[in-house]
Design goal:
The chain is mostly helical and 360 residues long. It has one domain. It has 13 helices and 2 strands. It has a two-stranded antiparallel ribbon. Strand 1 and strand 2 form a beta hairpin. Helix 5 runs antiparallel to helix 9 and helix 10 runs antiparallel to helix 13. The two termini are 38 Å apart. The relative contact order is 0.16.
């Protein structure tokens, strides 16, 4: 919306700043943060009043978590509202990549909201049926991937870029839709699994959003893409604004989610944030890099898979409890220790992901 003010830069030179993606990304961060800080307390009060007992806590989980009973969930609503408002305010509405990523974010948020609603109303840790939920997630991801492919140039459509190799592309053709489905839905559920401790998921999400904001900006600039010998994807630079909105909303949410949390983001937030990162990765042709930058989410997911497979095949558990953060809790680590150390891992993985831009 504010991007359109740049059209009047001939009359008022100062308005030319609205043409710069960097300026609008900064504006998106500040706007999203301010939105959550202003409206967050009221949203928390409403959710606490409506939910009563709050998010149900697993009886078989760490005993320290039982003290969190009564904490409201669906905090993702404030994140989604903030990201949507800030993105619409600062982005170029003619850019279809923005609408695709925003569409995935809101669709996954709606799925997560329904899941949270069932958990709160039934007061049970299980919500939306797994197969039905996953089916809807994959359908949304397929539509988004197809839309992204239709925007790509013939040279890039259906191609999988391989990091560390400047000209390497693997042609997947129509199968790229299946690949994109797995990336987007996988990212959504990986962040969802990671969201188990106060502040644990939101900071790695912000780190990943910052990383992909930079990647989107470089990938969408022909000048920088040529210099770095990476694939130029026209139009994706605008996704830096969306990443800025994710960072700002995440900072605001962390204010209320810091231990002891006043509110949980719930599936409403975690599924939406993961889906957004997955969609951005597919749009920028950096799907494999997402697995590096979001390596913490991958580890959390693998711990669940390994635990389930091991128990079904051998009757034994590899970890004391899955996902991985609960394993360390059961080993005696304090919750704050697990959270901060996982944040450190996320920073290191983000740096490794950024290294792929130059090591070619």
């Amino acid at each position: 919306m504010l991007y359109e003010l740049g059209q009047f830069s001939d009359q008022i030179g100062l308005l030319n700043v609205f043409r710069y993606i960097t300026f609008r990304t900064g504006g998106a961060i500040f706007t999203a943060l301010l939105f959550v800080m202003l409206f967050g307390p009221a949203i928390i009060d409403v959710l606490r009043l409506k939910q009563g007992k709050g998010q149900p806590i697993r009886d078989d989980g760490p005993k320290s978590h039982l003290a969190k009973r009564g904490t409201p969930t669906m905090g993702g609503l404030m994140i989604l509202a903030s990201v949507t408002f800030s993105t619409l305010m600062w982005s170029d509405w003619s850019n279809l990549y923005v609408w695709i990523v925003l569409g995935v974010t809101l669709a996954y948020g709606a799925i997560g909201f329904y899941d949270d609603y069932l958990k709160v109303t039934k007061q049970h840790a299980s919500g939306f049926g797994g197969k039905a939920r996953l089916g809807i997630e994959l359908f949304v991801a397929a539509l988004a991937t197809w839309a992204i492919m239709s925007l790509s140039t013939p040279a890039l459509a259906g191609q999988l870029a391989v990091p560390f190799f400047k000209d390497t592309l693997i042609y997947l053709g129509p199968a790229f839709v299946l690949f994109g489905m797995l990336v987007i839905a996988g990212a959504g559920n990986a962040v969802n699994l990671t969201d188990g401790l106060d502040g644990l998921a939101i900071v790695p999400v912000m780190i990943a959003a910052a990383t992909f904001g930079l990647i989107a900006y470089l990938i969408g600039s022909e000048k920088f893409a040529t210099h770095l010998q990476i694939h130029y994807v026209a139009g994706t630079a605008e996704l830096a604004v969306v990443c800025g909105a994710l960072i700002g909303a995440g900072l605001g949410f962390l204010w209320f989610n810091a231990p002891p949390a006043m509110i949980f983001m719930g599936d409403t937030g975690s599924l939406a944030l993961g889906g957004a990162l997955g969609a951005i990765a597919v749009a920028t042709k950096h799907e494999i890099v997402l697995a590096i930058v979001g390596g913490l989410f991958v580890l959390e997911t693998l711990s669940v898979v390994i635990q389930v497979v091991s128990f079904k095949l051998t009757g034994k558990r590899v970890f004391r409890m899955a996902p991985l953060h609960h394993h360390f809790e059961q080993k005696g680590w304090q919750e704050s220790t697990v959270v901060v150390r996982f944040w450190i891992i996320s920073v290191l993985l983000a740096l490794a992901g950024l290294a792929t831009l130059k090591l070619r």
